[in-house]
Amino acid sequence: MRVFKFGGASLKDADGVKNVASILQRYKGESLVVIVSAMGKTTNALEDVINAHAKQTGQAQELYNALKEKHYAIMRDLFDEGDDAFAQVHDAFVEGEWVLDEAPNDNYDYMYDQIVCIGEMVSSRITAAYLNKVGLKTTWLDARDVVATDNTYREGWVIWDKTRANAARIVTPMLADGGFVVSQGFIGSTSENFTTTLGREGSDYSAAIFSHCLDADSMSIWKDVPGVLNADPRLFDNVIKLDRLSYKEAIEMTYYGASVIHPKTIKPLQNKNIPLFVKSFIDPDGSGTEISSDTEDTYPPIVVVEKNQALLHISTLDYSFVAEHHMSRLFGKAADLRIFVNMMQNTAISFTICVPNVPERLERFAKDIADEFKVKVEEGLELITIRHFNQETIDNLKKGKVVLFEERIRNTMHMVVRNVPAIERKAVDIPGSK
Ligand code: ADP
Ligand code: ASP
Ligand code: MG
Predict the structure, then answer these.
(1) 96: number of CA atoms within 13 Å, CB side?
(2) Domain 302-419 carries which CATH code?
(3) Which residues have CB under 6 Å of ligand 2?
(4) pTM exceeds cut of 0.90
């Protein structure tokens, strides 16, 4: 059996749904689990609803209604009036309505997950119903019955044994029954049956969870790009497609921010040696990228840019050396607050780390260690990673930037940079120059 994943970009409108169905026609009769994300930018729109509800701005219901109408408009293009799909989607939206009818929960992350999941519930209902309509037998599955997590809301940790057992008990018989199974990415549930999410853009990871637990022969993610490229085409020209990548290369790229694949996706696949294909939903005949274990290790320079980084300059208050027990405390605190350290460097009495800039977490970090350390935060930075670098690539990337921090380890180079602001050049009177 195989697992496919279609993301928001592939399902952004009625034509997108039709295109997904036409791709799936090619696989008619195969044993296929299809994982879908929310349509287009639905998750961002649901975040706006949640924020409005949390702050009680009075706009939550209005924003929610607009999102509902957007989905119903897509459905009117796909289904005849009175189709069962309308009732199913209506029921999915009611799930969110219940949360909005109550006062905002003190636990923001919990409330977030109970509402944001609606995007995937609705898109999966629409996709499954449409596939059935065009003659592709499909069973709809609630991913929350399969993907078991702890109760870390917004970043649920998968409980693998339980998820594996659920998959065998629920999904395997569905597949044996013939046809496709359509389910949601991004979501899971706690042992008390509350919804959790796996982190933004987590649907690729969901597909990998299903692939791992069902021992899939392969997994394919269908994107708006021809495959994995050697840099993000939104940021760079003249990018090239990488035909084959090793798991190791893919995990390094995604860890440092190549957003084409969610970073947690590779491990569950590597652990079972399941190949991952990155394919284009615009050009399904294109060869795409194959990520697997057996590839020769020669690559062109690969560039990954992670924006919104901060440098934390941490120094001891009493001029004592930064010693092992300090490191242990600093890393323990970072882990507790879920601050992910991308790079680090130390001198005798200071320690500098590059981390994603999440201001509330960084403020808390500084406050919690204030008895021993002074923390200076430098914001508005980018982390550029170059794998298989050469001097020409480095020089090109440095243009127009101030490099604050740089490190090379074997075939990887990291730079923390600030873009040089375009300042108006003025003639300056230098004393004594006349
Ligand atoms: P999905 O529809 O599954 O959510 P995403 O939009 O998250 O898909 O991922 C596809 C996007 O990833 C592309 O449109 C591209 O801009 C971006 N991207 C970033 N880095 C790369 C890369 N190295 N190769 C290809 N695409 C990349
Ligand atoms: N819909 C979710 C998000 O936008 C999950 C995903 O698309 O992968 O973050
Ligand atoms: Mg995405």
Answers:
(1) 26
(2) 3.30.2130.10
(3) 7-8, 37-38, 43, 119, 185-186, 200-203
(4) yes
Ligand 1 binding pocket mutation candidate from 17, 43, 203, 223 (most atoms within 8 A of CB): 223
Domain residue ranges of the chain, discontinuous segments joined by +: 2-216, 302-419
Tell which one of 42, 127, 203, 209 to mutate to probe ligand 2, the residue whose CB is within 8 A of the most ligand atoms: 203
Nearest ligand to the CA of 122 is: 2
Same CATH fold assignment for domains 2-216 and 302-419: no
What distance in angstroms lies between residue 388's CA and the mean position of ligand 2's atoms? 30
Homologous superfamily, domain 2-216: Acetylglutamate kinase-like (3.40.1160.10)
**Nearest ligand to the C-alpha of residue 288?**
1
pLDDT in tens, the chain (434 residues): 999 999 999 999 999 999 999 999 999 999 999 999 999 999 999 999 999 999 999 999 999 999 999 999 999 999 999 999 999 999 999 999 999 999 999 999 999 999 999 999 999 999 999 999 999 999 999 999 999 999 999 999 999 999 999 999 999 999 999 999 999 999 999 999 999 999 999 999 999 999 999 999 999 999 999 999 999 999 999 999 999 999 999 999 999 999 999 999 999 999 999 999 999 999 999 999 999 997 767 899 999 999 999 999 999 999 989 888 999 999 999 999 999 999 999 889 999 999 999 999 999 999 999 999 999 999 999 999 999 999 999 999 999 999 998 999 989 999 999 988 765 556 666 666 54
